[in-house]
Amino acid sequence: MRFTNNVSPSESFEKSYSAYQTFDASRQLADVQEELCATIVTELTESIFNDTVAKW
After folding, report:
1. Under DSSP, is residue 13 helix (H, G, I), strand (E, B) or coil?
2. Alpha helices (runs of H) in 1-56, residue ranges in sequence order
């Protein structure tokens, strides 16, 4: 992701984000995929949000 801070250009950055979740091996991915995807999207969103507004 590329974040451009137009007010303080020195605080602009480019960063890659990743996230993963583990799940019980006795369960099928199809059974937990929706929940895992929602959790991962939330984690990624929070990470990006925190990195972009932490210095406000």
Report:
1. strand
2. 29-53
Is pTM beyond 0.90? Reply is no
- Residue 37, SS3? helix
Cα 31–32–38 angle (5° rounding)? 140
**Banded model confidence at residue 38, pLDDT cuts 50, 70, 90:** very high
Query: Which residue has tokens 């602009």?
Result: 12
Please state, in angstroms and rounded to a whole number, the distance separating the CA atoms of residues 20 and 6. Answer: 32
What separation, in Å, do the N-terminal and C-terminal C-alpha atoms of the chain show? 19
* Domain layout of the chain by residue ranges: 2-53
* Residue pointed to by tokens 């972009």: 52
Q: Among candidates 40, 43, 45, 48, which has minimal Cα distance to 15? A: 48
